[in-house]
Amino acid sequence: MKKLNQLFKRYWQLFSAAAVVLIIGLGVFGYSRSQVHAAAGRTRVVFWHEMKGPGQKKLVTFINEFNKSQSKYEVVPQFQGGYNDVIQKIMNTHGTDASPAIFQSMDISTSQMYHSGFTVPMQKFIDKENYDVSKIASVARGVATRNNTLLAMPFNTSQTTLYYNAGLLKKYNITPPPVNPTYSDITRVSKQLYDRSNHKVKGISVESYSWLFEQFLSNANEEFANKNDGHTGISTKVNFTGPTAIKSMTWVQDRVKYGDFMNFGSHKNEMAVFLSNKLGIYMQTSADMSVLAKGLGKNLGVTYYPRPDGVKANGISVGGASLWISNDKSEAVQKGAWEFTKFLINPKNQARWEKATGYLAINKDSANEPILKQSYEKLPMLKVPSDQLKSAKANYTNSGIFVDGVVAARSLIQNAMQQIYAGKDVYKSLKAAEDSYNKVLESNNLANGWTK
Amino acid sequence: MIESLPSTKQQPKGPEANQEITAKVKSFELKKNDKYYAWLFLGPSILLLTVFVFFPMLRTLYLSLFLTDTFGNPTVFVGLKNYAILLKSTSYIASLKATGTYVISVSIFTIIFGLLLAALANQKLRGIGFFRNIFTATMGVSVSVSAVFWLFMFNPSIGILNKVVTAFGFHPIAWLTTPGWAMTAVIATTVWMHLGFTFLLFFGALQAVPKSLYDAASVSGASSRYQFWHITLPMISPTMFFVAVITLISGFKSFGLIDLMTGGGPTNATNLLVYRVYKDAFMNGNYAQASTEAIFLTIIIAIITFVQFKLLAKRVNY
Amino acid sequence: MGIELKGITKTYDHSDKPVLSEVNAEVQDGELFVIVGPSGCGKSTLLRMVAGIIPISDGILKINGQVMNNVPPKDRNLSMVFQSYALYPFLSVADNVAFGLKARKMAAAEITQRVDDALKMVNLTQYRDRKPRELSGGQRQRVALARAIASDSKICLMDEPLSNLDAQLRVRMRSEIRELQRKLGLTLIYVTHDQTEAMTMADHVMVLHDQHVQQIDSPLGIYNHPANHFVAQFFGTPQINLLTATTSGQTATTKLIVDEFLQVELDAPIATGTYTVGIRPNQLGLKPVNGNEGNATVINVEALGDQTIIEAVMDNDVEIRIVKDGQVHIDLDQRVAVTALGPAFVFDENEALIAEQGGVKDDRIVAVN
Amino acid sequence: MENTIMKQATKKRLLGNTFKYLLLGILAFIVIFPFALGIWTSFLPSMDIAKGTLWGGGQLTLHNYVTAFTQTKILRYLLNSLVIATLVTLAHLFFCSLGAYAFVFLDFKYRDFFFYVVLGTMMLPFEAEVIPNFATVKMLGLLNHYSVMVIPFLTSAFGIFMLRQTFKQIPRDLKEAADVDGLSHWQFYWKVVMPYSKISLCTLAAYSFLGAWNQYLWPMLTTFSDHLRPVQDGLRQLQSEETFNDWGMVQASAAIVVVPTLIVLYIGQHYFKSGLNEGSVK
């Protein structure tokens, strides 16, 4: 004891320094931990999402409502940034404290989530409860289905949509594009607008965003990857240089050359310019709808995504994201996640969701909700994306791409699109992207043991 | 202190001799104990550096020799194939070139502007303190804050820069979405961010030049311009070298600004090395390739750092 | 011709008190003019104003008859040697010497010639390719000299060039500089705080103190006729003794009395009153006395071999110093009688010299010559 | 003649000064402008900013700040950064000084070898090692936790190197005197070496704090919830969450973030300079 005392006397500074560090550390860690814990008695359900702007606001409202509606679970939302980041975040955190109980992940990640084995198929809960899933739009379900098993629940479902400024068209006396337009229909409007406004208004913008490219292919029933876009096996080759790919990109490049096209670089900028009446047409997710409708009102024009001339529209696959339930959490947490999922997709909430964001209500019953009916009556063009969705018959090319690592492909395509907009050769640019991605695909398949 | 040592009390000799002997014994014991103290003192640092620096380096090297699966596990040994792929990849070469352009421009412009500011602030003028304070201001600005400030200026529709451009009758410029301009924008922002710090360094260096050197030069007939080139520059050359090295290294490590301003685009024009590593690993999930890129990055930075050590040891000018 | 200072005054922006005021002087062509004073007296400031490194607040500076006040230093055609030598650390010895010549765009061949000559003159030829940090203090000093030599200007300014050298080297460099100055026919303004340097080197000495010129004269002129307390104290080691003395009687008299033993007989009568008398240590006599007699007690004896310095404290508590040639044996605490031997200076209450006793001084000058 | 020379010189100086002031003014404007504009717009109503009317529009408002404080977690981000940076700074001071002490005052086998090992780590960029480091912290269960942003940075090769330089300046006599007085290594370290090197320690503290404060990539990879995100990544989050370009709020957040750093920097400026001289240029 005396020895210990002496030891302490001699090294008291060391001890006290260590103690200070320890206390600060523990205090702080404890504090941070306590912040993460749910209110007493509730099961905490961490929800990762990637919703921004109006979507985020509405989603937070839903979560608050859900938390108030029952006392068993508490959903904690955590914003994770872009769709692109979140796939790897899931891969990297699975099995740790940091991972979510339920997360939102985009259409093209379906394959990777499926292969990872990190999630519980929604089908399990549906079967257990005999939940009537037929109420959910089949095209939307198609994106998240494998072997007749629903892997994830579609939540924010969108369509690529063509927006035009009807007010501007009226001002310059231009006939609006038809409902199911071809490339030439759009060219006509864009050119007329550009010319008649004395080049003050740009005719069209197509963001260098791979999703738009993918939908050009879908709408012409062209494969993105072999094995039916991966739906019938592991894709080993991609195809970025098919006739539609070339045709669509040449079409855009022609617009660049003529001058009626402008690349605004980002979705944000594009939207801002469109709202300020300096751009006639742009193509983006239907989720822009709420902001655009608020900004332009009756002057907003909406029509289907364009198709190549002389080709029947095949319809486009749904975009957006679905909800996945992780399998590294307890049964109770998973149950909570499922309850929350059901809450989000009930007819009323889906109707409110569409009204607030422009994402399409996937619950068929939502159409009967007064809130949607009223808004359709007020602004009929709001209905166009869901009409577009209904007009399509599900097949392999319009049911998403079931290939691992499409994120990388997207960045290659984006790069190719930017090159094409800058005047580089269409075929060469696409071919380079295709070759690069084929190599990635090959080594990825090899690394995962899917091919030898 | 000494009284408390039991050995002293047992010594029957006089107090002075007593102390001396104790000290000797003590110091001998200490030398023997050094080993344990060394473990105690250095152990934590060595352990941390091993776990978080050396091991990861080896692991990265190891990963770069494999293909990795969805979960980042090395599965198929491919030897140096990843390196070969990278060196043949036009986009990687383009990234290397972009990084080269970026780091070299950043260091050159940082040095030029930093020196210009410092030289001006070193003048004896009324109210110069005010300017000195302004010039150091950007030191407090972190990457994300700089990015926010400059993103607003580069905004194509409401940004101030395009207002200026259009006021002069030019077409508005898509600053961050045209390859050349995006690089320019990123360089400008980086230089601006470095400016305060560089200014401080150069200003300190200028102030450290003995005034008598200038007096001597002006008496012996040198104009102020001549003095700048023949006294100031040689005298502050170590600082210039130092600034060049740190801006080069931090340039190679640049990540935040790229992430916030351009995301590596457009057409990979600003897809700098670190951003690429991040993107390939944490977006595309291609850990093997990202590791290979990380090894290249390490080699480049290691070379620069090594050169820095060597040259600093020798000193640059005298 | 030469250099003419008329009412030169320096006031810095931030204060209204001048650091130098009303300096008047004339430096003749080819002379070595020493400006001496304690640190902070403004002597370096004065030199820098002549060089043009700092602007002149008031007054007129003429070099060779031309007003130079606003002429930049490079156009004044001077050379200068700094206390710190101001050698460019990144240049070799030869390049340091050539620096000014190159700045003036002299022809390469001539530069080489001049550098060679200058280095030869200061015996540094073999060190021409060394960097300053590879040289000793004395060698660096020579490089600075060589730089002044190499420039073709006939006016050279030196700012305490020897103060960073050790004592022996300083003595040697003193004569070397003097020699160089004569050989090259330089007009040299030399600033120092060291009265020995001033005494040994100068043709004329300017004593600066308290922002003012105290005296300008030849070295011996200053030693023999110090204009005031300060000058008297500044020159000569050990320091002059300053003692309070009063006149005897009610009328003007030639006799000043410090005490019973120590009395000074002046050349001319002086008004009654109290004065300060300055007597150099070697002009005091000292005689050991018994018991409590005499007027002082020895407190310290420094035997230097060829002379002995005795410190004593007078009965009025004033310490005095006495220098005796040869080796004097005297005990501490010995009572002594201190008397005046020869020359003495009388200062008034303003510390200015008002009278002196010639004593034997004129004879001594003659004897030296 | 005399007069013309004088006049010309005065005129030249006057002209030179005017030119210098002009240049100073322009450069100061360039340096301060992005700042000033950011702060200025943070006081404008969002509508004005969106329309691009930056001046002469409506009134100035604190609304953006209210939004930033109430609608976003900016304060939480700031607190997180403060905690992380403080912990890292304390750890650096402690571990780096101990390490440096060992290299200077202790005699042990392979001392030089270990020193080169430490020096060598300065050549390896952390950015290139994130992949295995991520795996490590995941294995240690540190993800989404303050400790993930602290533990890998508890020590710094630069800090050890810098303090070693400082400690080497401590006179050997002091150590010998301490030996005579019978001080143990720990006592000597704590009672002599640390107080003796106060300035260098402050310098290191300033560096470490700023370094930790500016961490970006690592927290971005390892934190997944807002209540743990440090301020740099918080701003990134705000920037990307806003599809609506609520520039006023974003600028206000940036202003809120920049003010504390500016204060720290103005206090720490002196140490930065001296640290640079010690750590590298010397």
TrEMBL record, chain A:
SUPFAM superfamilies: Periplasmic binding protein-like II (SSF53850). It is found in: Cell envelope. InterPro entries: Bact_solute-bd_prot1, SBP. It comes from the Bacteria. Its main location: other. Keywords: Signal, Transport. Belongs to the bacterial solute-binding protein 1 family. This is ABC transporter substrate-binding protein. It comes from Lactiplantibacillus daoliensis.
TrEMBL record, chain B:
It holds the Pfam family BPD_transp_1. It is a multi-pass membrane protein. InterPro entries: ABC_transporter_permease, MetI-like, MetI-like_sf. Keywords: Cell membrane, Membrane, Transmembrane, Transmembrane helix, Transport. Residues 96-308 form the ABC transmembrane type-1 domain. It is found in: Cell membrane. It comes from the Bacteria. PANTHER family: ABC TRANSPORTER PERMEASE PROTEIN, INNER MEMBRANE ABC TRANSPORTER PERMEASE PROTEIN YCJO. This is Carbohydrate ABC transporter permease. It comes from Lactiplantibacillus daoliensis. The lineage of its organism: Bacteria, Bacillati, Bacillota, Bacilli, Lactobacillales.
UniProtKB/TrEMBL annotation, chain C:
The lineage of its organism: Bacteria, Bacillati, Bacillota, Bacilli, Lactobacillales. Keywords: ATP-binding, Cell membrane, Membrane, Nucleotide-binding, Translocase, Transport. The keyword Membrane applies. PANTHER family: MALTODEXTRIN IMPORT ATP-BINDING PROTEIN MSMX, TREHALOSE IMPORT ATP-BINDING PROTEIN SUGC. The keyword Metal-binding does not apply. This is ABC transporter ATP-binding protein. It comes from the Bacteria. Pfam families: ABC_tran. One of its GO terms (molecular function) is ATP binding. InterPro entries: AAA+_ATPase, ABC_transporter-like_ATP-bd, ABC_transporter-like_CS, ABC_transpr_MalK/UgpC-like, Mo/tungstate-bd_C_term_dom, NA-bd_OB-fold, P-loop_NTPase. Residues 3-235 form the ABC transporter domain.
Automatic annotation (TrEMBL), chain D:
InterPro entries: MetI-like, MetI-like_sf. Gene3D superfamilies: MetI-like (1.10.3720.10). Its main location: membrane. It is a multi-pass membrane protein. It is found in: Cell membrane. Keywords: Cell membrane, Membrane, Transmembrane, Transmembrane helix, Transport. Residues 78-268 form the ABC transmembrane type-1 domain. It comes from the Bacteria. The chain crosses the membrane at residues 21-43, 82-106, 113-131, 143-163, 199-218, 247-267. Pfam families: BPD_transp_1. Belongs to the binding-protein-dependent transport system permease family. This is Carbohydrate ABC transporter permease. It comes from Lactiplantibacillus daoliensis.
